[in-house]
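PROTOCOL LOG
Step 1. Enter all chains and additional molecules of the complex.
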Amino acid sequence: MESSISEIRGRPLIPGEGRGPLLRLTHPISFWGGVEPTRGRIVDPRHPEFDFSIAGTVLALPAAVGSSSSSAIMLELLREGTAPAAILMGKADAILALGAVVGREIGYDPIPILEIAPDRLERLPDGAHVSVHLDGRVTVE
Amino acid sequence: MAMRIVTSAADLLGAEALVEVSSAHIDGCLHHGDGGVEFAEALAAGGGQVAVPTTLNVGALDLLHPEVVRADAHKVDMARRQMEAYVAMGAEPTFTCAPYQVGHEPGLGEQVAWGESNAIAFVNSVLGARTERYGDFLDACCALTGRAPLYGLHVEANRAATIVVDVTAVPDDLKYRDEFYPVLGTWLGLQVGEEIPVINGLPSSTTRDQLKALGAAAASSGSVALFHVVGVTPEAPSVEAAIGLGGELQPDSPPGWGSQQMPRIPATIVLDSVSVQGALQRLSTAVGSDRIDAVALGSPHFSMGEFQTLHRCVRGRTLGVPFFVCTARDTLADIESAGIAQELRTAGVEIVADTCVVVTPILPAQAGVLMTNSGKFAHYGPSNTGYDVLYGSLEDCVESAITGKVVRSDEVWSW
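Step 2. Run joint prediction.
Step 3. Record the structure below.
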């Protein structure tokens, strides 16, 4: 693996700004059945990051899987204020992004969602505080 | 707002155009939280009306028998508001995951926007209409606008089979049994990933209920949205036809000409005895249990034909454990007028309409072992209900429910 870097660039699916501690999921997750929206916690007992809170994090996802009802869970996270501060996805996924589009339409606070190639995503240092910028840059604080 | 969401989705998916659709099935009636209610009511308050004939998937309530669902007053109120908002926009209150059983059958090649994984698999595969995998919100926005992103399975070339599934080794006796199809579907979903399978070797008499069970299981264990069955589904008169869908080959072209469009030769996977056993075992988590505490049938929703089979098995008998069958309100009305419903209830069958037992609390709160003939219930039962599951044929479910002691005809699975 290449060394960590202090800035990478992604493609904004939902442009915006957000900052928080990086939480990197090591396994794909289905938000429906995998994330409990009133607390923003991972509730799938088979998931390696079981019981982690995603609220307020910059959430790095290698890939999402599963149910298209995950859009609905994304919307509930935004409504409850338990959503991540930003989401960085290894592969663009219309399901989570769609939940964010709908949230923006009905007036919930939006969050940015970026597509960033997995090999670049890997180079963000674990545990770092990172900021996501309007132009798709992600910087390590 | 609906059109902005459809065009945003098209951008996210990389679709360059929209396609007109002729029907929609909305999977947005199920209450996951109050955001879904606020979205539906915002569409309705803005004067939203469906632009095409639209059916509704299950909600979190049985509106005909509200007492069967155990939920607090706030959730019941919000779940009801969510279901009613879509009806106010002109959608038909079908509240079923099997709209294709209550008179909504798009034709071959028709462009539609359907949600709910089993309904998607059925309409694409069995009816040959064309939908992508629509989920919450986007299906509703397609219904209101009559448009969908032109993408994925809307495009014929993307419907071509990419993997051949050979089931010719399976004995005919097993292939004619209903309980084979959820097992086949479970195995298929785990095997094929993103590929589009063409299955070779099923009887031409394979029924719609069997294909329904196959698709629902494959869309639960995996993400199958389209499968072809040679000689059975409309886009697969042959393996070659399913592989060549959307291709531009000219039969009289000179050799090598047009090779850019030649479909690649797909790999073949074979269903053998060991794979069948593996998939069968995966459908039961209550290993070694000799008692059951409840039975649930009807995922996807029970059809008239399935009710008739159940009726033959239980009439005049008494079921000893709670026994739930989920169906559409339209099918319920049909079995009421056929006189079947009353005899089923007398035997101890509880008929649930508009919803189902894995999406909302209906099963007795004291969890235990749930027996089912549904691959989808077997898949989602443990995580959604807390029950361990035991898979068996409809007949085995009935026999087990009479005394509460497990009866399973295991010999049919070995060859």
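Step 4. Note key features.
Chain B is about 35% helix and 15% strand.
The first strand of chain B starts at residue 18 and ends at 20.
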